[in-house]
Amino acid sequence: MMYKTIYLRRGKDESLRRFHPWVFSGAIERADEELEEGDIVQVFDSSSHFVALGHYQIGSIAVRILSFEERDIDESFWRERLQTALDVRRSIGVAGRQDNNTYRLVHGEGDNLPGLVIDMYGGTAVMQAHSVGMHLCRMQLAEALKAVVGESLTAIYYKSETTLPYKASLGQENGFIYGESQNDVAQENGLSFHIDWLRGQKTGFFVDQRDNRSLLEHYSMGRNVLNMFCYTGGFSVYALRGGARLVHSVDSSAKAVELVNANVELNFPGDERHKAFAEDAFKYLDQMETGSYDLIILDPPAFAKHKDALKNALRGYTKLNAKAFEKIRPGGILFTFSCSQAVNKDQFRLAVFTSAAMARRSVRILHQLHQPADHPINIYHPEGEYLKGLVLYVE
Length: 395
Prior knowledge:
Layout lengths: L3 E5 L5 H4 L4 E3 L3 E4 L8 E5 L5 E7 L4 E7 L7 H17 L10 E6 L8 E6 L2 E6 L2 H5 L1 H12 L5 E4 L16 E5 L5 E4 L2 E4 L15 H10 L4 E5 L5 H8 L4 E6 L2 H14 L6 E5 L2 H7 L7 E4 L11 H18 L4 E7 L6 H15 L3 E8 L17 E7 L1
Parallel strand pairs: 1-4, 9-10, 14-15, 14-17, 15-16, 17-18
Antiparallel strand pairs: 1-3, 2-6, 4-5, 5-6, 7-8, 8-9, 10-11, 12-13, 18-20, 19-20
Helix pairs in contact: 2-4, 5-6, 9-10
């Protein structure tokens, strides 16, 4: 198969020789013909030697690498990559279990498929493209996914309306590209959850907190739990199963509050230990009585989606955590997270430590948390480590 070719400036192939999966726009010397966003291109060094193949895109990241070998990017390529991804999920024990059919099958660069996310919810796969190249390959990907997963796959929902570059003018709409499913309930570690892939955030559920929810369950027995930014209420449901005395879920979205109530009812019908509130997080923390809770979860949306917003994001994390430290009961446990890729773990930890000092509380680290194994980090792409968390004991 013939592909267009780009040539790198002298010395700009070094990161690719170390298998980093991005080419930045400033590294490109020229192209042999006019490029369109989403093209598969060959990347040559300044001496015209082949280095890699990838999807071309407009922006600072100009090429996302698909392969460091000369080969056709066809259905057999997609099948191989998806099969490898599924094999990994089976080997780590998240796929093929009776009590768990919710997991991430493809995690972008972590699975050597940059720009692609696929989450599995029972028989429904939710596919999300973050690059024009993956969008253009979506039907090939769907065919490869059907071949790899087999008869257990009943539907593929394509959800890329908000993740594709808006300037690409693709006129993309979300919808089923294979089959259809009315069953929106999936299993995670023996608990049931409604998955809102139609209107929900990300692919409809925060799959990346599964292991951290299990850890929270371990600490919940007999505690008063506050789940801030609760969204679908995953942490709340695990806390109830863990034997919490009471669980309060807070989210600014009334829709999220409806969803958390539905998920609690699905698992613990009529359980009066749980209440949900549609309220701004900072306002709720300000107004609540000090010492009301001895286990608090802070899992806010990304405060910084890019580096320009970093300073404001760190201020936000500091303010939020300081308020939680001020209000939590002595002997309480705080689970606090950042999912902002622009904030590294050292910056996040410094913000949390600053918060503890501001609140004048003695704090111990019990656990340092991160994304689960079905959200793998490519060792050559450390930027893939986006979820940071701390579990803290507050005297």
